[in-house]
């Protein structure tokens, strides 16, 4: 519909200038570029609309009166472009047009056919909206004392999906992951291993479990042990001190258990389709910020308190505290040791040195809103221009119907266990429907259904919201779910196969596509036309739920289209129309597959 929008802008701009001349209104000439085109909320109002609010002050007229005058000008001086575009009318403060369906349908579908898999990447002018933007996305951030859990799954899904959406919109994307591999929590797992497993020579291989699950088991064992032996906490602290001193035995155990965890976590990443361009390790970065703090202290950006700690006043960005006093953030403790934000300052600067981004997105839970607000403020105070483009993509908690989860008590739902449970339920559903012989490798299909169920359920909700993950609901083959999207994709693929078997091929010519005038056809075509603008919006808002919910709308509209507009069965009586509808089905599948990939829903051609 790009050409229609440009023509509509030009027609309305010309009419506004004519209206100004007739009314002897002052002001500069209105250009087509300054005319904002919107989509009316209801189809019966029109397909495109231009609001007249921007002209009300200059014309000293109410927007509805301006709209009526502009519509009348268009009708009085109906050019060939306007006549071929459609029917114009004033609807309240808007000038709307109901497009000539034949012309618009052909333009939209021909654009999809021509662009193929790249459709959705370009705006109306053929430009990629995010071209030239270098975006670093940090997500996942696992701890090396436990496996990934359901909370990580929402983080991973958001980070990977946002990365794919940004790339689709034309950005150069660099995915990073900070591995939290040092600290007291790591030493707790290490101490439990020495207490309960080292003498027996236990390893993940000897026990037949993934490395991250084994180390996580050690963490739970420490929690149980420490309740009866409080001295264990001090022992773990002493182990951390020994680690920081470089004790060779402690370091060797630390490296071995880190490797076990990371090897296990990588298998989960491979299973879920998540990847990174670079891994950063806290053990390498936790001291990076000290030099930055020292330089900021010299410049007077930071100050030293009487107790020797280094701080910064953050009241400007956080407001005063509950006691009415200014708020200060500690950057170095009085003994000179760093705190978490010290590491984050150094890491942000190091990353920009490694890969000079002009936008950085941190995918971190909403509990850290204060932390990132302060972090970004400090980086701006330090004079880094790129700090203006730092963004915290905060997301809400994700829980199960059984309640909240706690790692140390072993009540966390491991990601692997959750995916495997979904896999088994999907496999059972395939068997119960008698489809295991029709879908190819039923086990592979079940795995893709499980991933679709998980990812779509996590991404269909706006990131900022808390959510409840219900495994049973996520696996439904009906309604707003990942498996339903897969079913519709497989259904379209089946239609295309049947058409091929019947010797019917798609016809994307203007003559053929002009036949698509049924209301269900037109509704679906307009839905497909929205895809590029929604990719751009999802990239700008860093919100995959925009694409997820769009997918459901496409599937619903295709279902209505296929109900009202048969394809193969009419080939004998109206081959041209059947070929045109086949083109529409093919274009729908192109958009569906593209958008599914953006929200990590695997495509299935049989289901």
Secondary-structure topology with pairs:
Blueprint: H1 2-22, E1 48-51, H2 53-59, H3 63-76, H4 80-85, E2 86-91, E3 94-99, H5 101-115, E4 134-138, H6 150-168, E5 172-179, H7 184-196, H8 204-207, H9 211-228, H10 231-245, H11 248-272, E6 278-281, H12 282-285, H13 289-299, E7 303-304, E8 310-313, H14 315-318, E9 328-332, H15 340-354, E10 359-365, H16 369-381, E11 390-395, E12 398-399, H17 415-432, H18 442-459, E13 467-468, H19 471-474, H20 482-501, H21 510-513, H22 519-529, H23 531-541, H24 545-564, H25 575-598
Parallel strand pairs: 4-5, 4-10, 5-6, 10-11, 12-13
Antiparallel strand pairs: 1-3, 2-3, 7-8, 8-9
User: How is the quaternary structure best described?
Assistant: single chain
Q: Which regions are unreliable across 5 or more consecutive residues at pLDDT < 50? A: none
| Sequence of strands across the biggest β-sheet | 6-5-4-10-11
Helix content: 55-70%
């Amino acid at each position: 519909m790009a050409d229609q929008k440009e023509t509509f802008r030009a027609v309305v701009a010309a009419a506004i200038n004519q209206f100004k001349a007739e009314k002897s209104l002052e002001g500069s000439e209105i250009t087509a570029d300054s005319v904002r085109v919107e989509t009316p909320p209801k189809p019966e109002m029109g397909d495109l609309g231009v609001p007249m609010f921007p002209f009300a002050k200059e014309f000293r007229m109410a927007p509805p009166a301006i709209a009526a005058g502009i519509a009348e000008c268009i009708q009085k001086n109906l050019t060939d472009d306007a006549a071929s575009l459609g029917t114009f009318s004033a609807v309240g403060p808007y000038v709307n047009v109901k497009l000539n369906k034949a012309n618009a349908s052909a333009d939209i579908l021909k654009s999809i056919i021509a662009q193929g898999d790249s459709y959705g990447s370009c705006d109306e002018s053929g430009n990629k909206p995010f071209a030239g933007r270098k975006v670093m996305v940090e997500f996942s951030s696992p701890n090396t004392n436990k496996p990934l859990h359901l909370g990580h799954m929402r983080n991973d899904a958001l980070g990977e999906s946002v990365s794919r959406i940004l790339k689709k919109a034309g950005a150069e994307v660099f995915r990073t992951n900070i591995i939290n591999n040092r600290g007291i929590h790591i030493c707790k797992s290490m101490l439990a291993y020495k207490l309960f497993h080292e003498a027996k020579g236990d390893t993940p291989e000897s026990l037949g479990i993934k490395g991250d699950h084994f180390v996580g088991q050690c963490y739970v064992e420490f929690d149980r042990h420490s309740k009866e032996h409080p001295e264990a906490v001090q022992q773990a602290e002493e182990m951390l001190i020994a680690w920081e001193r470089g004790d060779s035995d402690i370091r060797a155990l630390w490296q071995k258990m880190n490797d076990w965890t990371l090897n296990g976590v990588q298998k989960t990443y491979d299973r879920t389709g998540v990847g990174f361009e670079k891994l950063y390790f806290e053990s390498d970065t936790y001291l990076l910020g000290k030099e930055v703090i020292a330089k900021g202290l010299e410049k007077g950006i930071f100050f030293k308190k009487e107790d020797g700690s280094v701080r910064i006043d953050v009241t400007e960005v956080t407001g005063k505290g509950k006691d009415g006093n200014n708020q200060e953030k500690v950057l170095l403790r009085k003994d000179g040791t760093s705190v978490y934000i010290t590491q984050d300052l150094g890491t942000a600067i190091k990353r920009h040195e490694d890969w000079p981004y002009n936008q950085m997105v941190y995918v971190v839970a909403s509990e850290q809103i204060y932390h990132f607000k302060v972090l970004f403020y400090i980086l701006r105070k330090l004079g880094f221009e790129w700090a203006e483009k730092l963004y915290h993509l905060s997301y809400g908690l994700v829980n199960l119907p059984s309640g909240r989860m706690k790692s140390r008590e072993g009540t966390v739902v491991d990601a692997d266990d959750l995916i495997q449970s979904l896999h088994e339920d999907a496999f059972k559903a395939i068997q119960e429907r008698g489809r295991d012989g029709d879908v190819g490798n039923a086990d592979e299909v079940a795995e893709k259904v499980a991933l679709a169920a998980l990812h779509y359920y996590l991404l269909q909700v706006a990131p900022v919201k808390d959510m409840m993950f219900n495994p049973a609901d996520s696996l439904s083959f009906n309604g707003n779910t990942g498996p339903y999207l897969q079913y519709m994709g497989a259904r379209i693929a089946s239609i295309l196969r049947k058409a091929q078997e019947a010797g019917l091929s798609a016809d994307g010519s203007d003559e053929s596509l002009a036949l698509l005038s049924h209301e269900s056809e037109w509704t679906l075509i307009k839905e497909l036309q929205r895809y590029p603008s929604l990719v751009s919006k999802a990239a700008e808002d860093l919100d995959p739920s925009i694409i997820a919910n769009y997918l459901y709308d496409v599937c619903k509209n295709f279902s209505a289209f296929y109900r009202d507009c048969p394809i193969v069965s009419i080939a004998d009586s109206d081959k041209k129309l059947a070929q045109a509808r086949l083109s529409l089905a093919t274009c729908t599948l192109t958009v569906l597959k593209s958008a599914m990939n953006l929200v990590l829903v695997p495509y299935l051609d049989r289901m």
